[in-house]
């Protein structure tokens, strides 16, 4: 009798694009770690500017010393990795400016970092930015990516997760 009374409704997760630019399917990313989904499923964006915004409401859980990526945990537990460019770890943080810290709570569209897009284009193998769900198996959700061609940070939903 009380079973359905306390049952949670279908919870939906929306992950917004963290950068403005052209949306690219993960399989097209020129790096097997991402294209073969070794880190997890997701999507990528070819940035049109060097600004990164929070793709979810949640907490910053990881910022590597090299500042080339940022890990977030959405309020529903979904963990999202935003990886700026490919082979950018070798830049050793040059060209990246972080504006948040590990442990900070963030809102969709909040600025997280800036990067020198021209420097990344000249010194990394690619500027394409994968956005990956690193704990999809543990969330119990089914994720789908957008068909949109262009993304506007904080406005375009690029990944939607729903209960299985």
From TrEMBL:
Entry keyword annotation includes Transport: yes
One of the record's GO molecular function terms: kinase activity
GO CC annotation terms, alphabetical: cytoplasm
Keywords: Kinase, Phosphotransferase system, Sugar transport, Transferase, Transport
Stored Gene3D superfamilies: Glucose Permease (Domain IIA) (2.70.70.10)
Domain PTS EIIA type-1: 31-135
Organism domain of life: Bacteria
Entry's Gene Ontology BP terms: phosphoenolpyruvate-dependent sugar phosphotransferase system
Compartments in which it is found: Cytoplasm
Matching PROSITE patterns: PTS_EIIA_TYPE_1 (PS51093), PTS_EIIA_TYPE_1_HIS (PS00371)
Keyword Oxidoreductase: no
PANTHER family tied to this protein: PTS SYSTEM GLUCOSE-SPECIFIC EIIA COMPONENT
Protein name: PTS system glucose-specific EIIA component
Organism of origin: Lentibacillus kapialis
Originating gene: crr
